[in-house]
Design goal:
Layout (H helix, E strand, L loop, with lengths): L5 E5 L11 H15 L3 E7 L4 H4 L3 E10 L2 E11 L4 E6 L1 H4 L10 H18 L6 E5 H14 L10 E6 L7 E2 L2 H5 L13 E2 L2 E3 H8 L2 E4 L2 H6 L10 H6 L4 E3 L26 H16 L8 E5 L8 H11 L5 E5 L4 H13 L4 E4 L4 H10 L2 E4 L9 H7 L3 E5 L2 H6 L13 E3 L4 H16 L1 H13 L4 H16 L1
Parallel strand pairs: 1-2, 1-6, 2-5, 6-7, 7-11, 11-12, 13-14, 13-16, 14-15, 16-17, 17-18
Antiparallel strand pairs: 3-4, 4-5, 8-10, 9-10
The protein binds alpha-D-glucopyranose.
Alpha-D-glucopyranose (GLC) binds next to helix 1.
Length: 477
């Protein structure tokens, strides 16, 4: 008989409670699907500011956690839903702030969080078979569990899965952090947390977890190379036997052009061209672009180097004479925000830029655009290209990471494939793909098939959840 799987899923962001990126989307859907498939799963994240105003949280207990040479209170709250219960770790000093990250004491904040998660288990007598960690913010749990708490019977059998959503953000801090977290300097060596004179929380996750997953198969291979390894490729390669790629899915009911209440005209695969055109007219009017039937290129993205904004700036400037339009929504690095805004001021009839995080506008862009731009420098999985295909919007992507695993190049002869893919990280390569896209758009017959192909794709959580379950079973058996 198979053992019951008891899993604790730990992440710094879980939607809808707290979200700045894809990490939160995964934390929202994957545990739910795992729960529906019979895994006994709970989640835990920090209790950020204001959460108690939006959700009815039940306070369950408080206890003391030692960090930075002082006693800190951990207040534990709980939010129970049908399938998954979510726990929140609160501390007035560490988490009642305006942002989630970017503070001088992030090392202590997430070190405290990591310790508190483990202490909470004993206080509440929750004994998972597996703790599933995500990204650097929770990575230290693996070190505490395997090294610092391993002499306590309660923790002995617990296994750790560590999922890397983005290797670029590593949680790098000074050596002194060890002391602040009551950790010995014996961890300051190459085989442990040391990373070019600093300590890396990401590295702790890589070394001390029993299995490492990342969010696409291609990214699992890429991170073992210097180009994508951010200095950790060596250690990842050494641990390659415990690495596996499981591609993310999306929630097909929550992202559905047929029922989406944010978009103006609902549509489905059989009337997509018409529906999308109606949405496009509405969007053009709403945001002040000329109302016309020209190909519309959308982008919903964090405005950071990773997302290929440099390429967009270059390609858009070069294509501005064409009869096309661009719409870009997102927030991020201020220099990208400024450059994009400047370009849109220069060409207001061609480019609309909105610097905000706006779910409703995002859906409108997915529904109205003909193409979706995602020329990422690297992309662990990427969810937006999957959302865009769901809305019949053809992705133009760079050949990297999860983009390779989810977007298949369109072939005119066989009319198969879902998007346009280019290799070289430069503005001209993106420009050429955009031009090719314009060509496809002009051929009604071809255009219908590519939109249909996109909308027929299924990257649901179902398959991926099964793979996680297999890995969980491997871990405990
Ligand atoms: C990060 C990655 C993105 C991935 C997401 C969820 O945001 O940059 O590629 O889709 O995590 O795993």
């Amino acid at each position: 008989m198979k053992k019951q799987l008891n899993v604790l899923y730990v992440a710094a962001e879980i939607a809808p409670f707290g979200a700045t990126g894809g990490l939160a989307d995964v934390g929202e859907s994957l545990p739910e699907v795992l729960g529906e498939k019979g895994v006994n799963i709970s989640r835990v994240m920090p209790k950020y500011k204001g959460l108690e105003d939006r959700y009815k949280l039940e306070k369950v207990c408080s206890f003391i956690v030692e960090t930075s040479g002082k006693a800190n209170v951990a207040n534990i709250y709980k939010y129970k839903e049908d399938v998954v219960t979510t726990y929140f770790i609160g501390n007035d000093d560490y988490f009642e702030r305006d942002n989630y990250y970017g503070y001088n004491d992030d090392d202590i904040r997430f070190g405290f969080f990591s310790k508190a998660v483990l202490e909470m288990l004993i206080v509440l007598s929750i004994k998972p078979g597996i703790i599933h960690l995500n990204d650097w913010q929770s990575a230290l749990i693996s070190l505490f569990l395997k090294k610092e708490y391993s002499h306590i019977d309660f923790y002995k059998e617990i296994k750790v899965m560590y999922t890397i959503h983005n290797l670029q953000y590593q949680g790098l801090f000074n050596k002194e952090t060890l002391d602040k977290l009551c950790l010995s300097t014996k961890y300051f060596n190459m085989e442990s947390l040391e990373y070019y004179g600093k300590i890396s929380y990401m590295k702790a996750g890589i070394i001390f977890s029993d299995i490492i997953t990342t969010v696409s198969e291609t990214y699992a291979k890429e991170i073992q190379t210097p180009l994508y390894g951010y200095g950790l490729d060596g250690i990842l390669k050494k641990n390659k036997n415990k690495i596996c790629g499981i591609t993310n899915g999306i929630h097909y009911d929550k992202f559905n052009p047929q029922t989406d209440s944010y978009i103006k005209f609902n549509y489905h695969i059989d009337n997509a061209i018409h529906g999308k055109n109606e949405n496009k007219k509405y969007l053009q009017k709403h945001i002040g672009l000329p109302i016309k039937n020209a190909p519309l290129f959308g982008m919903v993205s964090r405005l950071s180097e990773q997302k290929g904004i440099d390429l967009c700036l270059k390609a858009i400037s070069q294509l501005i004479k064409e009869d096309i339009q661009f719409v870009i929504l997102g927030t991020g690095d201020s220099h990208y925000e400024e450059q994009l805004l400047q370009l849109s001021k220069k060409y207001p009839d061609k480019l609309k830029v909105m610097i905000e995080f706006n779910q409703e506008m995002a859906r409108l862009i997915y529904a109205s655009s003909d193409f979706f731009l995602m020329p990422s420098l690297f992309e662990p999985c990427g969810l937006s290209q999957i959302y865009s295909m769901r809305f019949g919007t053809v992705p133009i992507v760079r050949k990297t990471g999860g983009l390779v695993d989810t977007v298949k190049p369109f072939d005119i002869g066989s009319k198969t494939g879902t998007g346009l893919i280019f290799q070289h990280y430069n503005g001209d390569a993106l420009k050429e793909s955009i031009k090719k896209g314009i060509g496809l758009y002009k051929n009604t017959d071809i255009w219908k098939s590519i939109v249909r192909n996109c909308m027929s794709q299924r990257f649901s959580w179902d398959e991926s959840a099964k793979m996680y379950i297999d890995k969980y079973n491997e871990l405990i058996n």
